[in-house]
Amino acid sequence: MKFLFATLLFVSLVLSSSFVQLSFAIPVMPTPTPAAPVPPPSPAPPSFCDGKCGERCSQAGVKDRCLKYCGICCRECSCVPSGTYGNKSECPCYRDKLNSKGNPKCP
């Protein structure tokens, strides 16, 4: 009787350990399919940027530098704030661009 009881106990332990291993197994998740890439916004045409940046930099002390950085920002953001200074809230992309030192990039 003791032998039968010990055998049944041993078999139940072996079976329960196999079920424990199955319950702790990491489920295999299917690999997600990559989403279609979102195309970047189309850059503004040079004539648009030239005219807007010409207005923006008309009173700048260093006009050529102002035109250069305004042109870069205009092509990337497709907008230029109105006026010669300020009004950057009209174009958040233009407002939020920073240079490598953490200062505003766009005039």
UniProtKB/TrEMBL annotation:
GO terms for biological process: gibberellic acid mediated signaling pathway. Transmembrane segments: none annotated. It comes from the Eukaryota. The keyword Signal applies. Keywords: Gibberellin signaling pathway, Signal. InterPro entries: GASA. Pfam families: GASA (PF02704). The keyword ATP-binding does not apply. Residues 1-25 form the signal peptide. Belongs to the GASA family. This is Peamaclein-like. It comes from Herrania umbratica. The gene is LOC110409424.
